Amino acid sequence: MRILPCLLLSMLLCSASAQAQVFWSVTDDAGRQNWLLGTVHSEDPRLLEFRPELLDALRASNRLALELVPDAAMLERLNREMHFDSPQLPEVLDEELYRQVVDLMESTFGMGEPAVARMRPWAVAMTLSLPPPETGLFMDLALSFRAAGMGKQVMALETLDEQLSFLTGLSEEAQIDMIRQAVVDFDRIPEMFEQLISTYLSGDLKALERLSFEQLDELDPEVRRHFYEVGLVERNQVMLERSRAYLADGGLMIAVGALHLPGEHGLIQLLRNDGFSVEGVY
Questions:
Q1: pTM for the whole thing?
Q2: Tens digit of pLDDT for each residue in 70-84?
Q3: Are 223 and 177 in contact (CB under 8 A)?
Q4: Paired residues of 12 in beta bridges
């Protein structure tokens, strides 16, 4: 998902400008080559125009490691987990907020009220926080197709249960707060995503991090704390742990939401702490 959460790309070049990049070369003392890419969970066609440096690295790799492998089985299960067995949403939301959600879901996503009434609160919040899909070919999925077409192994660094626990771990009150904020921001979503994607395409990872956290500042403190501590810090450690054996062999490309890369607890610094040389490519 990035989730919007979850969302972004990679990095390059080091020294003073290191934090302003999105695709990175990762090597160890023996010269074994790996790569790190930040992605954005979006189907914007500009994100699907993969640069030659990235495609060359993908050809040279053995494995592509994503947060999740977006195959049919995973997507089918995700759809099941997003819904209650019965229409419980009207009991969770107050009448005014429920009607606003139903109206937006019907007018923008073409969902009838019977389906909306069965959605879990976190699923409503995430759906309303993203532009309505048109092609379904998100950046992560397109990269997965490319890798599979080259005969590369595509693997997951997390399980669906782990990703869902990040969302379900929020209190019901916090999930409802996210819905309220998503309704308030709904008309601004195209503008917000354009700003996000433009910043990403500029390769300015630091500005992308700042922009994302500015948007999070509008949420309840519990949500912001959970997003940072559980959604980033804890998940980054898990991703690193599950990558280590493959990094030691070389030929691994890690492609995860861009917000997992920067900062003291980001993957760039964690890899450097492990003794890897991490240098920007673009």
A1: 0.90
A2: 889 999 999 999 999
A3: yes
A4: 280, 281
Would you place residue 121 in the very low, low, confident or very high pLDDT band (cuts 50, 70, 90)?
Answer: very high
* Burial readout 16-29 (b: 16 or more C-beta within 10 A, e: otherwise): eebbbbbbbbbbbe
189-240 pLDDT, tens digit per residue, is: 999 999 999 999 998 888 988 988 887 887 888 889 999 999 999 999 999 9
Cα within 13 Å of Cα(58), Cβ side = 24
Q: Which residue has the higher pLDDT, 69 or 6?
A: 69
Q: Is residue 144 part of a domain?
A: yes
Is 131 within a domain? no
Q: What are phi and psi of 255, to 5 degrees?
A: -130, 105
222 within domain boundaries: yes
Q: Which domain holds residue 48?
A: 15-69+137-280
Domain count within the chain: 1
Report which of 175, 168, 263, 167 is spatially closest to residue 219, judged by C-alpha positions. 175
Residue type, 96: E
**Lateral strand order in the sheet of 33-39:** 153-156, 63-66, 252-257, 33-39, 23-27, 277-280
Interacting residues of 133 by C-beta distance below 8 A, sequence separation 6+: 43
Per-residue pLDDT band for 152 (boundaries 50, 70, 90) equals very high
Buried b (16+ CB within 10 A) or exposed e, 218-230: ebbeebeebbbee
Rounded (10°) CA dihedral 266, 271, 274, 277: -140
